[in-house]
Amino acid sequence: MSGQNVSFNTNCQQAYKQILALHLDSAGSLLSQETKSDTGNAYVPYLENYISFVSLFVSQDRALYNELKSSKSKYFNEVEKLDDTCRYKKWMLGNMHLQWAVLKIMFGDYISAAFEVNSAYHLIEDNTREFPDFQLNNLSLSVLKIIVGLVPQQYNWFLGLLSMKGDIEKGKKQLDGFLSVTKSDSLYAPYYYEALFYSAFIEMNIHPDQKKLSYFINEAESINNDVTLITFLQINLLMRTGENQKALDLIRSMESANQNMYPFFYINYLHGECLLRARRFEESIDELDLFTTYFRGENYIKDAWRKKAWAAFMLQDTLLYHEYMEAVILKGAPKIDIDQEALTEAENEQLLGKDLLLSRILFDGGYYSDALQILNETDTSNFSDEEKVSFKYRVARVYHQMKYIEKAKKFYKTTIDFSEVTDNYYAANAALKLGEIYEAEGNLSSAKDAYATCLNMDYKQYRNSIHSRAREGLKRVSE
């Protein structure tokens, strides 16, 4: 490879699609063929780096990370050989830095990750100035704006030092714009899957709009299930929107259709979670066992053991429940919110009553009527303060999803009133949800107050994610 030209030809396009399908061996073979026919095509090292990124992102295998991290410079060196007048050069390098930033965050190399983001940001920003009509800049820069915009407020001084500015709403609009371009311009059509994946995942996690989520579900359903990344997206969308049975059906079809797929044990975690929500507790434990046995990473391990404990609790196996909760403490690492919550629950022995737990499980699966029936039949007279606030929060969430908005507002407000008696996230998220309701109603003054209330609360669980959404909400209603 000399890295002297760029050709996104049939071989490279097929390899790119195979990467998104997690058929990494097939992608590698196609790139080997391309190298034989064109030793100087810079798309080959770019996509080889992409294979490294996907394999690490999916496996979260630290040993593999250390191995591939030491050899990544060869891909950068080949792309660097492109002429500075090539519009793909800085875009490719910027994307490669962004991919390694994501991986370094995942593996805890935070300072190095910050400099990778900085390199990516300024490379893409420079390329946008030099080649303003090159639409791929918008794909990358939009994601970078969102990532930088999600950085907790206490680190803004660091962003200032690096001259990086984030803007989540502008990033989302820019990304949506590029998604439209992929449908109207054949040059960018191959990037549709990647743009759809980013757009939908960001929408799910940052001020989700139900109409847009429905749009993304329809878009994903229109694609054949040979693009694993999009099937994975669709499963997450269905789980997020309460379509648990559809998610289960899709997981089963995915598992049977992708025999040559790179091992993706996170799907076992999602499968186990869906089975738990469907009250198929023994099957849930079996599926989560596969995840905790074979997954090489640290994230979601604590939560998987906790969910096995929940299933055992529902099966009235107290001994197994305590065994699994002990594993929550010993296994995995508390780096992400859901694992931190699992660890706190295990250490403090915070398991709620069976009815409250089952209502939460059913709510997460979209079985709202069943969850509400259980809550309505729950005797709260002997509840602790923690159980009382959990109860009111669960009722509010169910009413909200069932479109009983006035009832939801009432219970959200009551949950907020309990903020002094618990350090849990319930009151803060209730304030966030109340702000979103007021914003949707056009009551911007009340929305502003609710978002501000959320930001002023003191709690630990899910703090960064809740604060990010409240901060963005406050920004929207204050403009």
Write up what this structure looks like:
By secondary structure, this protein is mainly alpha-helical. The chain folds into 2 domains: 215 residues, Serine Threonine Protein Phosphatase 5, Tetratricopeptide repeat (Alpha Horseshoe), CATH 1.25.40; 127 residues, Tetratricopeptide repeat domain (Serine Threonine Protein Phosphatase 5, Tetratricopeptide repeat), CATH 1.25.40.10. Helix content is 73%, strand content 0%. α11 runs antiparallel to α12. The mean pLDDT is 92.
How would you state the average pLDDT, rounded? 92
The arrangement of helices and strands along the chain is HHHHHHHHHHHHHHHHHHHHHHHHHH
Q: Low-confidence segments, ≥5 residues, pLDDT <50?
A: none
What percent strand? under 5%
**CATH topology description of the largest domain:** Serine Threonine Protein Phosphatase 5, Tetratricopeptide repeat
Q: What is the number of helical segments per DSSP (H or I, 4+ residues)?
A: 26
- CATH architectural type of the largest domain: Alpha Horseshoe
Give the beta-strand count. 0
Q: What integer value in Å does the Rg equal?
A: 23 Å
Structurally, the number of domains stands at: 2
Tell me the major beta sheet: none
Judged by helices, strands and strand pairing, the structural class is: mainly alpha
- Gross morphology: globular
User: Roughly how much helix do the residues carry, as a percent range?
Assistant: over 70%
CATH top level assignment of the largest domain: Mainly Alpha
Distance between the termini: 51 Å
